[in-house]
UniProtKB/TrEMBL annotation, chain A:
Residues 52-319 form the Dehydrogenase E1 component domain. Keywords: Oxidoreductase, Pyruvate, Thiamine pyrophosphate. The keyword Oxidoreductase applies. It comes from Agromyces salentinus. This is Pyruvate dehydrogenase (Acetyl-transferring) E1 component subunit alpha. The gene is pdhA_3.
Automatic annotation (TrEMBL), chain B:
This is Alpha-ketoacid dehydrogenase subunit beta. Residues 4-179 form the Transketolase-like pyrimidine-binding domain. InterPro entries: THDP-binding, Transketo_C/PFOR_II, Transketolase-like_Pyr-bd, Transketolase_C. Gene3D superfamilies: 3.40.50.920, 3.40.50.970. Keywords: Oxidoreductase, Thiamine pyrophosphate. It comes from the Bacteria. Pfam families: Transket_pyr, Transketolase_C. Transmembrane segments: none annotated. The keyword Oxidoreductase applies. PANTHER family: PYRUVATE DEHYDROGENASE E1 COMPONENT BETA SUBUNIT (PTHR43257), PYRUVATE DEHYDROGENASE E1 COMPONENT SUBUNIT BETA (PTHR43257:SF2). Its cofactor is thiamine diphosphate. It comes from Agromyces salentinus.
Amino acid sequence: MTPSDRHATGLLTRPDEFVQLITPTGERRSDPELDPWVADIDTDALSALHRDMVVVRRLDTEATALQRQGQLGLWPPLSGQEAAQIGSARALREDDFAFSSYREHAVAWVRGVGPADLLRVWRGAAASGWNPYEHGMAVPQIIIGAQALHATGWAMGARWDDTDAAAVAYFGDGATSEGDVNEALVFAASFDAPVVFFCQNNQWAISEPVGLQSRQPLARRADGFGIPGVRVDGNDVLAVMATTRIALDRARRGEGPTFIEAVTYRMGPHTTADDPKRYRGEDELAEWRGRDPIARVAALLAASGADVAAVEREAGEEADRMAADLRTAITSIADPEPLSVFDHVYAEPHAHLDRQREHYTRYLGQFDDAAGAAAPARGGSR
Amino acid sequence: MTTLTLGGALNAGLRRSLAGDDKVVLLGEDIGTLGGVFRITDGLKAEFGAHRVVDTPLSEAGIVGTAVGLAYRGYRPVVEIQFDGFIYPGFDQIVAQVAKLHYRSHGNVRMPITIRVPFGGGIGAAEHHSESPEAYFAHTAGLRVVACSDAADAYVMIQQAIASDDPVLFFEPKRRYHVKGEVDETASLADAKPMGVASVVASGTDVTLVTYGALVQTARDAATAAREDGVSIEVIDLRSLSPMDLSTVAASVRRTGRLVITHEAGQQVGLGAEIAASITERCFEFLEAAPVRITGHDIPYPPAKLERHHLPDLDRILDGVDRVLGRPNSLSGVEA
């Protein structure tokens, strides 16, 4: 990691500044504060980030297709937010811990979560997809903003444990109105917690525009908590990575939390159950399509003389493999056993629940089929 | 044996837990330098340091939510909610996160969080300082809920709650904080009665009287008074509200045939309803009378000058005892 002393006084004191290293048309802008933090990102590394984004976009389209085919109950698409998620997640260290919402599939993929584990929750087959300790990533959170406090508590503990690991809290623009996020900012500031608040401002909280959540750039809120805030082009994978690395470096040095507002766009619906045509227009979508996070990296690679066709071909091949893996994975996810509804409610025996389980076991025992699919022994309409 | 107040016993139990496990941390408002508004954590910050006994910003959601993150890291947080009526801003984190994360993570993430709550009335306090919110939590899967009633139990049960790998709502009868009792500080936790087991605190043969928290003493006093009247009351201190030790209650009711339940919380959809229903299911053929509930009214907690008209007391409990015995009582002649 590139050391720098400038972060404390420069970038992070100007929350209104829109930090960008790659323009939508693929030009590389120079930034003396950010450049040192991505000096290691050569053509090969940039191609790898491009490949990451292509793969997770395919993950998204494939999962959406699986939902349409009835294989998944629901899917919250990440399309449009690839740079925000890949750029930040690739800045994390293995011993860092991510606390996310339900849309950070790309973060989970970077953290090593496999295809079946990414899908099982959305198939309705499990309460969560993976063991958080195997991937350094918490159970994704559906209660809006609740995970910001969990990240902060984890970070307080990391500091007390004398490690230099950091937590990152992923949440959206809507979550910034929640008490939990604001309370997390208070606690993080008071305890100098090594946590990065990574807000993906994707402009929409289901049907509500970000203007309903805030009258000013979200990054500016951080100042009120005594936390540095920075506004980054969330569709610029390089700027996101540089900014996240700066924030993580601050955290590791014991300088406390940072708030990053990654300005991006949710290209798809809130979930597959949503119809965004009811609240936003095609012209807005077209405008953001022009700021695509993947196209600009391809353009930059081309401008820098790389064999873009080869990069895109290899990325496409990996995406094809990912799609095939997902289709295989979905059929490998077994329906859970009926009595597993009682598992893990408590870590230790609980007399009441144990009795309930025993009674339901006896009830199920009346049926021919252990899974409870057959008619009850005495027939009837049930 | 040492003579300690109930509050002093909690302090001693917390001290022993802090000393025994580096991962135990206390979080709350005013618990450090001040030692808590009830002084339950008095001296612990000085002894264990500001990273073990943590004064937090004034945010119940923040305290509970950061405790969740600490538990993710392997800590065993002990959270103090300053007063019963202040717990609601933390309700979402308790019922949606603390209670469910073990289940949601398929058992991978443990939430060994103890949430201490001074509860109940009778101290002439301002509003929001005298509530009995235990039923909300007993209704929530994933939480354990307990209430101690004396110094000896307070000392042991707080340590058991902290040692539990499940989250525990730990209700402390605040009007009993200053009542003294004998505490064995040398006893091993391994030999102690498990947290989930009820105590028969007075033996009797005519009526089973079930309660918990501050009303345990009131119930014992009622039993003493009834004895002079020739009525033998068995008093059960439930101790654990989730799970409830219904076996102990049922065994008693099979002998007495009569059940009275008393709690400060309102009657509607309260713990008394659950106990009455469960015992009726298990002991229907043994019951000589319908179970009776003597509870707080279904009202917001009233102003201090009225609280004696809200809280169950000895006479109201004995009126309920008369009802299950079919003796003249305040509702004689009134149709159910």
